[in-house]
Design goal:
The protein is mainly alpha-helical and 142 residues long. It has five helices and two strands. It has a two-stranded antiparallel ribbon with strand order 1-2. The structure holds zinc ion. Residues 13, 15, 23, 25, 32-33, 35-36 line the site of zinc ion.
Length: 142
Amino acid sequence: MPLKRLKPPLAHCKATTSSGKPCRAKPHKGGLCFFHSDPQKAAELGQKGGRRNRNTYETPLPHVTVPESAGDVKRMLAEAMADIRAGRMDPKLASTLGYLGMSLLRAFEAAEFEQRLERLEQRDDLEKQAEQTGKSEARDNR
Ligand SMILES: [Zn+2]
């Protein structure tokens, strides 16, 4: 059959990875890649990989800025969500970020409330001053 001859040689390992996706590694023997034909070796390297992954989580992420507003927190949380879904962030780190983000949002709210109150008090003082000045001016003009 000519079709059979046109069929390309097996390009990838026929096993599936632990995440259920087909293994993309080059076949080593029996249609299996180096790791899948030698599970013992794979376990060893997997442990190394786990350690390596932990290290990447510990290295500082690029473009880390201090969130200074509710908008910054929103952006940070949105980025974290995307990173988790793409597998670029440790979910544990993400839940910490989520927790901190919520606390930060509450702190921003409180700070904003405080500032608003301060402004109101200042305005109140100014109005009282103006009132008194106005009274004394009225008295002087009498
Ligand atoms: Zn494989």
